[in-house]
Write a structure and sequence with these properties.
- The C terminus is likely disordered.
- The relative contact order is 0.15.
- The protein is globular.
- The two termini are 30 Å apart.
- Helix 7 runs antiparallel to helix 8, helix 10 packs parallel to helix 15 and helix 12 runs parallel beside helix 14.
- It contains 18 helices and no strands.
- By secondary structure, the protein is mainly alpha-helical.
Length: 409
């Protein structure tokens, strides 16, 4: 056990300084992202109907899809750092704009879209920069550190957000914008620019479309990456139900809001306690097979949510789901980043963000489906994730050799 801890510690110590800056920035972003959990409550308090609130969330979701499309391009065209700065300062302003436009529904829809767009510019650029800087053998640990920071921030932030919301809602929006701006200042001061692989005027629509055409043409022969994108689409569709349908399921099962909060807290607690050492151990194994195990456990956890009728059952289901998440998500980030060709890295990682965003938007239909078929929705969610297990295990004849190919066949 001691050699393993030494190895993990050495792996963490060997990360470039930029990784620690990104980790700190991700903690700040997630710590301050308490607006979203309270947004529905805030908008409802302004007498917006459920339909109007849903439309605002859909506008944000559309931004979540188009953000990675632009972010992947900009990461390759103007550089990783500049794209991250556009994302951070833009999303901080958009967060303040949501509060400022709260009494203007049309403007609120526009700013909601802008918020979703700017927030999701960040992922392809930051992941591409991390991949630029971190050697392949240390990337899984780096991505696990990122997720540790994200979950730590998200676990701590909502409690502060609730206090600010109870005091005065504008403080919540201001606090969110402030932490994002601090992350932007750290990014500007300490992060390198990273690679630029697109030549030409970045603002030119012609350059934009030609660059994406080139990336998609390259994707035609990248069988492993296409397989990964298809697998995570099915997994993400099921995965996202936990953050929409689960609250209704626990309520209908007679659980209290406090018990629901404890179930969700279990997810974050397990990630904080075991994901980093687990990821360090998993990096020696074949990634596609490990991803298949993670996707399968996520699927089984989703099915278990549908079978749970008491607090203990939901805790067991969440444990299954979270172990699957711990296995699959950081490894999936490292695997896809490794597969992404250097010259198209930002756009490839943008495709990953688009896939997640699209699956998340479609997953919102789970709330409507739940109204009609009840707990059976969890069977569909679980089946979708289990389908991703089959997809990632399908034997493929890769048209080119990749770093991971020898480990994933």
């Amino acid at each position: 056990m001691y050699p393993f801890i030494q190895s993990l510690y050495a792996d963490i110590r060997a990360q470039p300084r930029a990784v620690y800056i990104i980790v700190l920035g991700q903690f700040l972003i997630r710590f301050g992202s308490y607006v979203f959990p309270f947004l529905t409550l805030y908008l409802s308090s302004l007498d917006y109907s459920a339909g109007k609130v849903a439309a605002i969330l859909v506008a944000m979701g559309l931004g979540n899809i188009l953000g990675p499309l632009a972010g992947g391009y900009l990461a390759d065209a103007i550089g990783r750092k500049r794209t991250m700065l556009v994302s951070l300062f833009g999303s901080a302003l958009a967060t303040l704009g949501i509060y400022g436009a709260a009494d203007n529904y049309g403007l609120l829809l526009t700013i909601g879209f802008a918020n979703g767009f700017f927030v999701f510019l960040y992922g392809p650029a930051s992941n591409a920069l991390l991949t630029d800087l971190v050697p392949a053998e240390r990337r899984l640990t780096a991505f696990a550190l990122i997720r540790l920071a994200q979950n730590g921030g998200f676990a701590a932030g909502p409690a502060i957000g609730g206090l600010l919301y109870a005091t005065a809602p504008w403080l919540m929006f201001l606090g969110d914008a402030f932490t994002t701006l601090v992350c932007g200042i750290l990014t500007a001061a300490y992060l390198p620019h990273g690679l630029r692989t697109i030549r030409g005027k970045a603002s030119s629509p012609k350059v934009f479309f030609q660059s994406w055409k080139a990336a998609l043409y390259d994707l035609r022969t990248h069988v492993l990456y296409k397989q990964y994108l298809l697998a995570i689409f099915f997994m993400a569709f099921g995965f996202c139900q936990v953050f929409s349908v689960l609250a209704l399921s626990t309520e209908d099962a007679g659980l209290s809001p406090r018990q629901y909060g404890l179930i969700m807290s279990l997810n974050g607690l397990l990630i904080l306690l075991i994901e980093l050492p687990f990821s360090h151990w998993l990096k020696r194994l074949a990634p596609r097979q490990v991803l298949a195990v993670g996707f399968a456990l996520i699927g089984l956890g989703l099915v278990a949510f549908g079978m749970s009728q008491n607090f203990g059952g939901f805790l067991i289901a969440m444990t299954l789901f979270t172990i699957g998440e711990i296995i699959a998500l950081p490894l999936g980030m490292a695997y896809s980043s490794e597969l992404a060709p250097k010259e198209y890295r930002g756009r490839y990682l943008g495709l990953r963000g688009i896939t997640w965003g699209t699956a998340g938007c479609l997953a919102s239909s789970g709330l409507v489906i739940y109204d009609y078929i009840g707990l059976t929705v969890w069977l569909f969610a679980g089946a979708s994730s289990l389908l991703s297990t089959l997809v990632i295990l399908l034997p493929v004849k890769a048209a080119r050799r990749e770093t991971y190919l020898n480990h994933s066949s």
